[in-house]
Every structure is written in C-alpha cells, then in structure tokens.
Amino acid sequence: MGEKDITEKTLLAYNDVFADIVNVLLFDGKRILNPENLEDASSISMYKADDSKLHEQERDVSKYWKNKNVKIAMTGIENQTVPEMYMPLRVIGYDGASYRSELILKKPHNTYPVVTLVLYYGIVKWDKPINLVDCFIIPDELKSYVNNYKINLFEIAFLNEAKVNMFQSDFGIVADYFVQKRKYRDYKPSRIVIKHVDEVLKLLSVFADEKYLEISANISEEEKGEITMCEIVDQFIARGVSQGIEQGIEKGIAQGESKRDEEYKTALELKESGNTNVSDYRDKGISDEVIKIVLRIDQLD
Description:
Blueprint: H1 3-13, H2 15-25, E1 38-40, E2 44-48, E3 54-58, E4 61-67, E5 70-80, H3 87-105, E6 114-120, H4 140-143, E7 152-155, H5 161-166, H6 171-184, H7 197-207, H8 211-217, H9 221-224, H10 229-238, H11 247-250, H12 258-272, H13 278-283, H14 288-295
Parallel strand pairs: 5-6, 6-7
Antiparallel strand pairs: 1-4, 2-3, 4-5
C-alpha cells in the first residue's frame, strides 16, 4: 500500500473518529455507536475475475460493531476526492465480499449487516451515479428485475453548520475545513484543540494541500499535546510558507518577496503584543490584505 493511501486512512482508523462519523452521518448526532464497541476488521478481500485469477480489493477503513462477543454489523468507510462513475459497483463488490465471508464461516446465528459510507471531499457536487441501475443502460424488459443498490454518499463540503457542529472528534475540524473552502474559497481556522494532530494534517495534505505535511513536520511533540488549527495557521504564516491556507497567500505571496515578508513579520509582532488596532498596523505601512490575514478579519473599515 502506498504511503499516500495509508496517510488518508489513518485518522479515520481511530475508534473515536470512526464512531463519531457514523453517529453524526447515520444517526444524526445521537451517540449510538460507542468507540469501545469497535473492532478492526480486515480491509482486504479476494475475488476471481473473468481471467480466472485471484485479485485483491481493499477497503479504506472497516470495523466490526460488537456487543460483547456478538457482531452487530460491519461498517466500512471509503474516501473519495472526485466523483467516480462506477462507485456503486465498487461498494457492492466490497459489501458482497463481506457477506461471502459470513457465508463461508457458516455461523448462521452470528450473521450481520454490512454498511458502507462514502465520504466525498470535493467542493463541487457529486454528479455520478449513486444507484447501481444508473451505471448501466438497461433494456426496459429487464428493469423491473434488476436489483438496485444505493451507496450511502455523504458530501462533506456540503454539510450544513448544524451537522458539522455535531462532530465531537477531530473529524469536525476536517469537515469544517472543506465546508469553508467550498463556501468561501478560504479557511478561517477554529480554536478547537486537535487530538490527533499528525493524522489531521496528513489527511488534509492528501485531500487539500500538500503544505500541511510540511506544517506537521515542523510541530514539536510538546506542541502537539495542546494545539489548535488557529495556532497552526499562525505558524504557517510566520514561517513564510507561500501557498496554503490563507487567501492572501494563495493569491501569490511568495516567500522571497522581502517587502511582504517584512509586513508579515511586523504584523505578527503587533499581534503578539496584543495590539489589534487596525490603524496602528496601517501606520506601520502594513497592507490591508496582510492585516486581514493576520487579524482574521473579513472586512476592514
């Protein structure tokens, strides 16, 4: 498995994050699934294709939901950054392999349903099939006999504020990031403390901006114990990273532009001293663009 594939799955593999995603997206925020009742399931299954060879398929993350020793369900999560035409076929392949495993085990009193969630992080609407029948051109005579199979698709960037606020794990920070990027093409970080710092930043580095990987590498172990996205962004700006979170940086502020670097340095010194008076920043020759980024102000008078 490639490092990028591993990176995008690590955060969701934590039981607190996995349970939180299921509770919010499936149960509307009710704490139905307890992290302590989750057990890792094998993400790999085998199938024989038309070439008569065995092939391997792998889910992103999958876990058993158990009550003591009894399996209640198996739940899988698939990450998607772009819409995929045949996603329903992929999901039914994963789910079918899981049901096949139950059949082979021959334990009729411990069979359980399989539920797969597809998390889509794109900032444009999903425009590919979410039902199996929409993947084919089906003759009218056959339509009533073709079993439909609908995927459980969740468009993270299109969640409403109430839904985002239901998250109690680090996934709430991830969801908030994509919602803001979709609505404003910008990101104003929160002051919520991150529990799994490396995993959040590495997931964002895969799905959003590679610079988050650089940020993660520059955060000390001591800082990771109590750090917020707001503090991370401050460090990002202070280091003069040229592309990433802030709108002004994205518009082309380069690390080597000494005048703009000096503006950032002066603005950050003022902010650290507790000064948030916009006039004082302007008096020192700091542009409004830099002031808005450093003070996190949308509009200036």
